[in-house]
Amino acid sequence: MALSVSGLTVRYGSFTAVSGAGLEIADGEVLALLGPSGSGKSTLLRAITGLEPIAAGSVRWDGADLARVPVHKRGFGLVFQDGQLFPHRDVAGNIAFGPRMHGMTGRAERVRRLLDLVGLAGYEKRRVTELSGGEAQRVALARALAPEPRLLLLDEPLSGLDAGLREQLAVDLAEVLHGAKITALLVTHDQEEAFTLADRVAVLQAGEIRQAGAVREVWRRPVDEGVARFLGVTTVIDGEATDGVVRCAFGEVVVPEAADGPVRLGLRPSGLRLAEGDTAEVLSKVHRRDHVRLAVRTTAGTVDAVAAVSADVNPGDEIGLALDPDGVALLG
Ligand SMILES: Nc1ncnc2c1ncn2[C@@H]1O[C@H](COP(=O)(O)OP(=O)(O)OP(=O)(O)O)[C@@H](O)[C@H]1O
Asked: Which of 94, 130, 161, 319 has its CA 20 to 30 A from that of 330?
């Protein structure tokens, strides 16, 4: 493992912000640390960089303990939410700063190559105070990559941007990270961002890592209801599995991983779709970008469901519901 963190604990006075956290990042892998506000994500990231003293545990790189290695000697690059560019330097000056400190040669060429990578070719002489939020974050990324860090740490790098730009930049950032095989730890509270950018995710709640695994695995098999709800599950329901098919109050759904016997399913709104029938009553509807979200009353309680934007469905209507396996998780 490139980065290996074990039993890491950080305290602020008598308050334990991170408790016994363990995580590993392989060479060239992107891990997203995902969790609600206040769960300890930034604290854990800062402890890994060496900016936060640790009460217990260890941070290792290629097996070597970093306890006595100061922040600037760890070879880590950092990107924060607000970029924190040097306002008195132009774009090239910002990006060349790290390489100059490290006495690296060929700096102009490096700046050009990095600007190309982040989609800002030709921006060398621009003043950073005149950049848009998205451009500034691209420059911050280029600056962090310039000294060729062995690990890139990104703390909510996109959360200062508006929704559309954020989505675009997440896709671009994923391309940069995976294209250049950069080893990275990303902190975010946004599951979509985590899933767009990361190979693996670790879910942090109240200072503890509750689950870590491949994106698809965590999404489809959350370990418990707390993790499931954080990942968008709004309904938890009991079912009975036979040969990879689960029968529950809403019908049958294929869940190949389910072992025969009683199981618990977590349904995201997209796990229940409008269908023929009259088993449910629509209570309310809200238009979303590419679907309509419904609250419906069923014999199993009030649940969330979705319908196509084109569907003619209104509060008071009686509808049927069908399970969609893509919106169904198997609780661990
Ligand atoms: N310097 C500090 N002194 C005391 N308590 C702190 C300090 N920094 C953070 N905390 C507390 O530690 C907990 C974790 O904070 P942290 O910033 O790591 O959470 P987070 O998951 O990154 O949250 P957010 O997504 O809101 O940034 C919070 O309860 C916070 O109030």
From this structure: 319
- pLDDT band for position 164 (cuts 50, 70, 90): confident
What is this model's ipTM?
0.95
The CATH class of the 3-220 domain is alpha beta
Take atom 4 of ligand 1 and give the residue whose Cα is closest: 12
207 lines ligand 1 (CB under 6 A): no
CB of 39 closer than 6 angstroms to any ligand 1 atom: yes
In angstroms, the CA 277 to CA 255 distance is: 24
Contact between residue 225 and residue 236 where contact means Cβ atoms under 8 Å apart: yes
What distance in Å separates the CA atoms of residue 40 and residue 42, rounded to the nearest whole number? 6
| Ligand 1 site, residue 46, Cβ cutoff 6 A | no
Position 296 scores a pLDDT of: 97
What is the b/e burial string over 231-265, where b = at least 16 CB atoms within 10 angstroms of the residue's CB?
bbbbbebebebeeeebebebbebebeebeeeebbb
Q: Which pLDDT score, from 0 to 100, does residue 51 have?
A: 93
Are residues 33 and 41 in contact, defined by beta-carbon separation less than 8 angstroms? yes
